[in-house]
Write a structure and sequence with these properties.
10 helices; elongated; alpha+beta; Butyryl-Coa Dehydrogenase, subunit A, domain 1
Length: about 350
């Protein structure tokens, strides 16, 4: 599995941009100058017509820099849900703005800490103006930012799970930011109390859409985790070469070499798993559920382990605000639980293979 020359050039360009633009300020140049939000959007909706491997490249670089831009929530989850719904009218109206980065989307899905479609308890009943729907329920762990323009909500109807477009400023809609361990990934809790919504796609087809979007998002998140784990290893190797103890760099001690070698194996395994999921999404969608479950599990655990080693091998400075080690460790913890824990995805993988697993 190899990326194309164009994708390697995309990686270099994104890395250069994120070096020049720190934090949330990277969003406008990333979308307006580079067109990163349009990569996986079809050309008919104002996109570049690319695929999961292009998204993989961007997400890996965003993870490397711990960028707080809303790429996962807006580009992968929201735009992905709109495309998977098959609602051409909504796609034509909403996707161009998401592709340009002039609007930001959020997919309100998780409830009670679970991203399993079966866990959704929010309900939608007919009754809105013009044949619309009224939605009631609470959504947790919604990836967003202070300003959200497009809100897609998962709720149950009598036909089953469905997706709805809800105006963010509609009566009955409220948003409350939540404090998270990982301060670089904004999350909020959205509450709907009889809020009007517009059905996206077919009534009862939301379960299929969410499962597909979950797999795409797991593949993208795995790329982010692999990129962040790789950066952890880079910083730790640099420190091991510079930090002198007992008259010699600590990287020259055999015990430290072994730990860095183990971290290298974890990083390379994570990169392979993440890239495998991206290739599956583009070339063999039937293999995506399995590849995404493997990637999310492998990359979550690899990132957590390498971030932990980063703190250990940096010593005291690794737990201070003066160093970024704690930020990577917090991102590892938060991303490991996002979209389901490694144990949850191993259970999903085992179920697909007809096996059982112990959590």
């Amino acid at each position: 599995m190899r990326l194309t020359e164009e994708q390697d050039e995309l990686r270099a360009a994104v890395r250069s941009l994120l070096t020049r633009h720190q934090g949330a300020s990277a969003w406008r140049p990333l979308t307006a100058q580079m067109g990163a939000a349009a990569l996986a959007v079809p050309e008919e909706y104002g996109g570049a017509g690319g695929g999961a491997r292009d998204v993989h490249v961007v997400m890996e670089e965003l993870g490397r820099s711990l960028s707080p831009v809303p790429y996962l929530g807006s580009v992968v989850l929201t735009a992905g849900a709109l495309l998977a719904s098959g609602d051409k009218e909504a796609c034509g109206r909403l996707l161009p703005g998401l592709a340009e980065g002039t609007s930001v989307g959020a997919l309100a899905w998780a409830e009670r800490g679970s991203w399993d479609p079966a866990a959704v308890r929010a309900v939608a009943v007919p009754g809105g103006a013009g044949g619309g729907w009224l939605l009631t329920g609470a959504k947790e762990h919604v990836l967003d930012r202070p300003r959200v323009d497009v809100l897609v909500v998962a709720a149950r109807t009598r036909a089953g799970m469905s997706l709805f477009e809800v105006a963010v400023d509609a009566p009955g809609v409220s948003r409350a930011p939540v404090v998270t361990v990982d301060g670089t990934r904004s999350q909020a809790r959205w509450v709907l109390d009889g809020a009007e919504g517009r059905l996206l796609g077919a009534d009862g087809d939301g379960g299929r859409v969410l499962e597909h979007v979950r797999d795409l998002a797991c593949a993208a998140l795995a790329a982010e985790q692999a990129g962040a784990a790789g950066r952890c290893l880079e910083l730790t190797v640099e420190y091991a070469r510079e930090r002198v103890q007992f008259g010699r760099p600590i990287g020259s001690f055999q015990a430290v070499k072994h730990r860095l070698a183990d971290a290298y194996v974890l990083v390379e395994s994570a990169r392979s798993a993440a890239l495998g999921a991206a290739f599956a999404a583009d070339e063999d969608p039937t293999a995506l559920p399995r590849a995404a479950a493997v990637a999310k599990s492998v990359c979550s655990e690899a990132f957590s382990a390498v971030a932990g080693e980063m703190i250990q091998l940096h010593g005291g400075i690794g737990v201070t605000w003066e160093h970024d080690a704690h930020r990577y460790f917090k991102r590892a913890h938060g991303s490991g639980e996002l979209l389901g824990s490694p144990a949850r995805h191993r259970a999903r993988l085992a179920a697909g293979l007809g096996l059982t697993t112990t959590r």
